[in-house]
Design a protein that fits this description.
Distance between the termini: 23 Å
Helix content: over 70%
Strand content: under 5%
Oligomer: single chain
Number of strands: 0
Length: 87
């Protein structure tokens, strides 16, 4: 939200932040659940080939990319995104 809109909230700002965090947490939970549901359906469909990815190998292979992004002016934001992704 813009700084102007934020300023208009006054004392309600913390309630809005709390609600946004709660909504974000719920969205991530529902997304994980739906992804698992869709994956299970794909695995049951003989017309679909599901390829599992080696996530650890991917993370290792792309680590240098994340480190490069952290060196940019918005590096703190990249760190926040990583921390949020880890839960």
């Amino acid at each position: 939200m813009s700084k102007i809109a934020e300023a208009r909230l006054g004392a309600d700002l913390e309630a809005v932040r709390a609600a946004a965090k709660e909504a974000g947490d719920l969205q991530r939970k529902l997304s994980v659940e739906k992804s698992a549901e869709v994956l299970a359906a794909f695995k049951q469909n003989s017309a679909v080939e599901v390829t599992e990815v080696d996530r650890d190998a991917f993370v290792k292979a792309t680590a240098v990319v994340a480190e490069n992004w952290k060196q940019k002016p918005f590096g703190d934001f990249v760190k926040q995104i990583e921390a949020a992704a880890r839960g």
